[in-house]
Each structure stands twice: as C-alpha cells, then as structure tokens.
Amino acid sequence: MPRRRWELRDRIARLDPDRDHLEIYQLSAGREFPWDYTRALEFALFRTYCVPSISRLLAATGEFRDRPQKRYDDTSLLMAEIATHGYDSPRGREALKVVNRAHGRFAISNDDMLYVLSTFIYDPIEWLGKYGWRPPHEHEKLAAFHYYREVGRRMGIREIPAGYAEFLAFKQRYEREQFVYSETNRQIGEYTVGLFAAWFPAVLRPAVRLGVRGMLDEPMLRAFGFSPAPRWVGALGDLGLRARALALRFFPPRRTSILGVSPRNRTYPGYPADYHPTDLGAEAPAPDFPAEHLRRA
C-alpha cells in the first residue's frame, strides 16, 4: 500500500480529538470516508425508526409517506452544512436554527433526542470498523463524540453524557429497552426501504429491497416486523463491502473534501449553489395536526 495513503490518518493522529474535533471530523467524513459516512448515517437514521415514540411522530407528520426524498435531503444537507462550515459559523448557525425550529414544534422527549444524537456518533464508527478501508483511528472516534456533543448542546439536548464510553452505554441500553415492534415502526421502515429502492432502476428495486433487509440486524428486523432476508443476501453484501474496502487501500488520498457538496441532489439540484440552509426543512404542521405530538407553549 502506498505510504501516502496514510498521510491523512497520520495528520489526524497529530491532532487533539477534543480541541481539534471539527477538523478531524471534516477530514474523516469529507476526505477519508465520505461514501462510508453517507451510507452509515443513512442506516443510523433508519435505526432510530425502531423506537415507537419516534416512528409515531414521523408517521403523524406524513413527511415519509408524501415526501420521503425531500425529508431525506433536508436532514442530510442540514447536517452537512453544520459539519462543512462548523456549528459556530454563519451557515452552521443558520442550519442549526432550521433544525431547532423544526424540532421545537413537536413534543420530543430529551431521551429520544439523545438517542438520535448517539446514532450519529457510534453507527458510523461501527460501519468503519467493518467496511472502512482502514479502521477508524482512536482520535476519529473521540472527535466524533466531541463534535456531536457540541452540536447536541446547540440543539438544546440536555444531559449529554460526558464520556465516550458512557454515551455508548446509554445508546446500547436505550436500544435494548425501546426497540419493540409497532405498526408505525413498520410504516416508516417500509417508506424508507422504498426510498432507498427508488434510487435504482425499476428492474433492480426488488433486489435492493431484499439487500436492505439483509443489512439489518435482528433487533431492527424484530422492531420493524420485517422477515429476514436469506443468509446469502447479507453474506453477499458483506463480501462486496469488504472487497470495496480492500480495493480502496490502494487509492491515493482524496485531495479535496466533498463534505456538503451535492450537485446532483434530487430535491435541490446544484446544491449548495444559490441555496441557503433556510431554504431547507419541512413546512409547519397543518392546523389539524394531532395535538398530542405538538409541544405545548
């Protein structure tokens, strides 16, 4: 493997994961593992739909039923804005305002917010441990924790654990307690699988749906009420991702970051040119929106 393939890893190793967490996260997500971070965060969000209190709210909004692609694009672009420019930059603060305004309309428990935040840290790290072209450096793990902890504070999330292991333990405990089947889990899960399949030609969509099920672990399958895919499906997907990782070891390091670059975005073509974070996000709930899901003034 060419020595220069490790130059960004070596740079990350010289940085401080607490003080330099934003720089490390930008290098990792934008240059070292951009495709992996995108896929891992897709599955991280998918994982949160296994919690009935989360899926009930999402089902009530109708966004996944009526506008799944826009819902996906809004979330991914807003989070990319914060990561690309920094949470205290003008565009980062603007993106956080859009996120906080959207969440502030609804009655969302602090524990649910904490759980979603935790998936953004640990699910990509787990993915990279299995499918990254190299394992994540310890500084990348800690930097992701410190980065999302700062983002969470700016989102008004309370009681964020102070340590990496402590927050991971919270995530694992929450999944054991809250991953139970509900009809809204299944609805949102089916809408999401349909969204993933829609990115491919019609002839491939049945295979994509099967492949997605093959990537889900037993707790997710049970919470969604999905039947498991044949074992060979998951094995084939795992083999393909590991083969990709092996091939990438011989690629030169990426010279420019693609974090926040989405010129072929399905909802916002050419993003970010001529767009601002305030152009993103869902509309306010309709007047007849169920009051049980709205935040009380």
From TrEMBL:
Bilayer-spanning residue ranges: none
Highest taxon of the lineage: Bacteria
ER-bound oxygenase mpaB/mpaB'/Rubber oxygenase catalytic domain residues: 59-234
Listed PANTHER family: ER-BOUND OXYGENASE MPAB_MPAB'_RUBBER OXYGENASE CATALYTIC DOMAIN-CONTAINING PROTEIN, PTHR36124
Protein name: Peptidase
